[in-house]
Amino acid sequence: MHDSDTPTAAARPQAAPEGAPAPADDTARAARALALTAAAMLTPALAVSQPQLLGASPRAAPRAASRTPTADELMDWAQQQFPGYFPTREATQRGDGLLWRYYPATGNYLGVQGSTVLVLGPSTGNQVANVGTLAQFADAVFAPATGVSDEQAARLLHQAGLGASPADIAAVRSQGLAGWLDAQLAMPSGLGAWDWLVGQGYSAVDDHTYFFSDYFYQYAVWRDLLGAPDVVRKRWALALSEFFVVSVDGINGSIKWAGLAGAHYWDMLGRLGLGNFRQLLEAVTLHPAMGAFLNTNGNQKENPATGRLPDENYAREVMQLFSIGLYQLNLDGTPRLGSTGQPVETYTQSDVSQLARVFTGYQIDYQGVPSSPNPLAPQQSIVHADYLLRPMRFDPARHSGLEKRFLGVTIAAGTPGPEALRIALDTLFNHPNVGPFFARQMIQRLVTSAPEPAYVARVAAVFNNNGAGVRGDLKAVLRAILLDDAARSPAGLAARTFGKLREPVLRIANWGRAFGVRSLKGTWKYQVGAWNVEQDLQQVPLSPPSVFNFFRPGFVPPATDMAAAGATAPEFQLVSESSVAAYLNYLQSIIQRGVYVYQPELPGQPRGGAPAGATYVPDLVPDYSVEFSLVGNPDALVARLNLLLCAGQLSRDTQAFIANALRIDRITAAANDDFKRIHVARAILFVMASAEYLVQK
After folding, report:
1. How far is CA 44 from CA 39, 97, 121, 131, in A?
2. Would you call 411 helix, strand, or coil by DSSP?
3. Residues 6+ apart with CB under 8 A from 405
């Protein structure tokens, strides 16, 4: 494929059939490699000629490129351009004049014998395919243009990130889909939410009483959602926050500095979210915010004299929600059925009770952290927020020393608590359910609500083995989700069963990213609520109503075609007649002039309301300068909004309907800025209210 990331219909890679899995051991791999070597060296003329497979040009020499690519350059390029065939980054192996790479997720081999490029695997019918020479790929490997359209770029930006701006679209087109994603995955984290809030003064023990507040963490989260350059990391952190759920609202009152606790938890998801699942699971388990939310903090061993038993809250949720789920799963996420034809439960109540013993003895670590008097009640001491930077500490005197039996594993009586925790988390991490359980929900968050089982299986296989024998590589999982043919193929655009309802937070992020929303004052004082039935989003980042998030992954909208098909659509759990109206009302309140704050003001709004003499001034403002230039040309204005907000997915009828509605304004390019702003805001409202925007494909 010389000019496109999407294979032709004849050459589009297919998943390896269930009956023909990738080689499972070194012997099988060696046999396949030997077959590739033998076919290439002994009978090269008999290799099946399939130059269209990777889009090799028929010309014998490069036309524009100054040199022929090396074998490694060719294979690096193929991995980026054809993730359906070669989904992971693999090491080059050498032997008998052949260089090759093996891709366990698909069972394919990619090799170079001399100057001949060869492919072997399920995608070639398990025949060695001659796909061209290195010279024939020179233009494609070294071409500055990627052949990515604006619409393809915007589609990836909406799935992988938080929306599309013209600059982002240009970057994806320049680097290619996989190239842009890899650059994002390699991007380091910027200034974290914790450090930014501390720099703004939110850790001060003063009469703003931030130690009793939680709302201000949203400023840092929205700063990231609307403006952080590492957009893929932030989008992934948002998805992870809906899997490893902590509700900041739910811990306010249980611990001090709940707002900073939420900010630090958000940073942790961003920092470790592109590492390994096992490491992230342990960090989540020992985070003070999680300890406060699910009662690990202060959880004590059994006491026969009083009848006290270890709290089971975290033991239950870490299995049900954070790792293995309720029912045993096949690799493709479908439930395993027992002899009665019913799903088989993953764990029992005994497993919960026994595992709960592991999570005893942990408590928030206040040791050595300084305190200051509460300025509103000097007799009360306020611990400084730095304790949140530490994982919970272990107190052996509070830990259950009893034997612990769960999920087929036994931890001997008297095993030290940290070792018991390691065994427990290793047991959960290595359970066969984790790959499909996690993969399906992350696909739901980013790409489609009811993924095909084969899609889940491909991603789960990468979770189980990133191609280098590593389990739980989250960066590889994210890449597999976004570059899978199911996500990138245009077939999904026409399929009624493909896509997802955009969650409300993402709609605001889409708007902010598309129109360059910035904070004039640098304070990012934006927070949303879920309490006003007439005007709100029904969703607050990191503050769901319970550990089950804002919507359950298995939710099926009742009395709909989706219900008839048994199709899950989680975000529809937030949809009602009142929520639809509240969203539109809320949108109208911000898209015209942005978000206003009190001026002058201190780092946070003081208790009791605005400072004396304060005025209400704009802070978070969009840049509609390009849209202003299109006023008077409704078709061009709608086309631009269609690209930025919908990745070109508005139908012609919808575009025409909106453009005709805008013509009623009879506005021209000579109109003043106030009229232009109203006109542009109306156009954005029409687009963001349309079903074709609300359903992301």
Report:
1. 6, 13, 17, 12
2. strand
3. 350, 354, 411
| Residue-level pLDDT at 638 | 97
What's the start-to-end Cα distance of the chain, in Å?
24
CA distances from 396 to 399, 629, 673 (A): 5, 68, 67
Q: Can you say whether residue 292 is alpha, beta or left, with left for phi > 0 and alpha for psi between -120 and 50 degrees? A: alpha
Eight-class DSSP state of 345: B
Mean pLDDT estimate for the chain: 88
Confidence of residue 69 (pLDDT cuts 50, 70, 90): confident
Q: How many residues does the chain have?
A: 697
As a whole number, mean pLDDT of residues 368-380 equals 93
pLDDT band at 564; cut points 50, 70, 90:
very high
Q: Which amino acid is at 429?
A: F
Q: What SS3 state is found at 93?
A: strand
Cβ 574 vs Cβ 502: under 8 Å: no
Residue 593 amino acid letter: R
Q: What is the pTM of this model?
A: 0.81
State residue 695 phi and psi, 5-degree precision: -100, 110
Instruction: Provide the b/e sequence for 284-323 (b: ≥16 CB within 10 Å).
Output: bbbbbbbbbbbbbbbbbbbeeeeeebbbbbbbbbbbbbbb
* Predicted local distance difference test score (pLDDT) of residue 33: 54
Burial 463-497 (b: 16+ CB within 10 A, else e): bbbbbeeebbbbbbbbbbbbbbbbbbeeebeeeee
Could you tell me which residues are beta bridge partners of residue 112? 99, 117
* Residue 444 burial (10 A CB sphere; 0-12, 13-18, 19+): buried
Instruction: Categorize the per-residue pLDDT at 140 as very low, low, confident or very high, splitting at 50, 70 and 90.
Output: confident
Angle at 576 between CA 571 and CA 580, to 5 degrees: 90
Q: What is the pLDDT of residue 34?
A: 47
Q: What is the pLDDT of residue 45?
A: 46
The predicted pLDDT at position 597 comes to: 79
**Using 50, 70 and 90 to split pLDDT, how confident is the model at 52?**
low
Helix (H) or strand (E) run with residue 261 in it: helix 258-272
**Pairing mode, strands 129-133 and 48-49:** parallel
**Spatial distance between the Cα atoms of 92 and 293, rounded to a whole number of angstroms:** 47
Residue 355 φ then ψ, to 5°? -65, -30
Contact 247, 542 (CB under 8 A): yes
Antiparallel, parallel or unpaired: β 362-363 and 393-394? antiparallel
pLDDT of residue 200: 93
CA distance linking residue 584 with residue 588, whole number of Å: 6
Residue 280: pLDDT band with limits 50, 70, 90: very high
Is the pLDDT at 22 greater than 70, yes or no? no
pLDDT for the residue numbered 480: 97
**Residue 119 forms beta bridges with which residues?**
110, 129
The β-bridge relationship of strands 116-120 and 129-133 is antiparallel
Residue 250 is encoded by which pair of tokens?
């739910």
Q: What is the pLDDT of residue 138?
A: 81
The CA distance from 630 to 633, in Å, is: 5
The first and second tokens of residue 6, run together, are 């999407």
The band of 40, judged by pLDDT with boundaries at 50, 70 and 90, is very low
Cβ contact 107:120 at 8 Å: no
Q: 164-186: string of b/e by CB count within 10 Å (b at 16+)?
A: bbeebbebbbebbbbbbbbebbe
Q: Which of 139, 128, 72, 134 is nearest to 101 (CA)?
A: 72
pLDDT tens digits, 410-430: 999 999 999 999 999 999 999
Give the CA angle between residues 423, 426, 430 to the nearest 5°.
140
Cα torsion through 100, 484, 4, 696, rounded to 10:
-170
Task: Please give the torsion angle defined by the CA atoms of residues 623, 626, 630 and 631, in that order, rounded to the nearest 10 degrees.
Answer: 30
Q: Which residues, including other chains, have CB under 8 Å from residue 95's CB and lie 6 or more apart?
A: 33, 37
